[in-house]
Amino acid sequence: MKRFFLIIILCFAVISGYSQMWKFRRYEVWSAFSVYQYYGDIGALADKHNLGGLTQISFTSNRPGISFGGIFRYDERFYIQASNSLGFFAKSDKDTKRNYTRDFAFRTITDELSIQGYYFFVKENEKNYFYSPFNYGRGRGIERYIRPFSFYVFAGVGGIFYKVTPKESLASSPRFVGNKHISVAFPIGLGAKFTVNPDFSLALELGRRFTLTDYLDGFTSVYSEHNDVYYILSFKAIYRLKKAKQIRYVF
Question: Which single residue of 35, 64, 118, 251 could bond 233 by disulfide (Cβ 3.0 to 4.6 Å)?
């Protein structure tokens, strides 16, 4: 009987230890390849039910970007991220029937610095990692693990710095506004994370950026009712630091 209770106590101790493992590895660094998509006055379709621009996504208008940043795990579900995202977006009236004859087009380069809060409604499960004692004395040993998925939502605020290059008829139009370069963005979105091993993860993330400007394309219309927005689809590679002191060597 004593042995039985001892086993129960040890089991609870192991479970408790696994549940606290995240506290020893709170910091992550990451980089990402991104795809940018813009929705605003130029290249927009005459569709009031556009689901925030999602129905107007044009694959020919996708533009590349890169991102990098750091993450702090405040607790098991809530993370704080700082990021820098650099990318392009572009649109043309030639892609639509609505303003085809107007023939405006543009290309914008943008740099976004933001801070975001992440909430994992399906949290990362540290207990999915199991380590074999076989050959452990000669190295790290053979690692056996179940690869977990986790899912999250995020929201934040940031500053965007942008430069518009007018194309086609917009380049010679007096309606082009090229002296605005700074605004505020509010990222919001969701993501899925796949843990390859205890050190390395992959994530797929879709975020919408609400902005306080209507000039990301260098143009605003008298019929415009909303500020410009853009989407970023990111493919992230994430590395979890083993100790907090490793941060000084990363940066």
Answer: 35
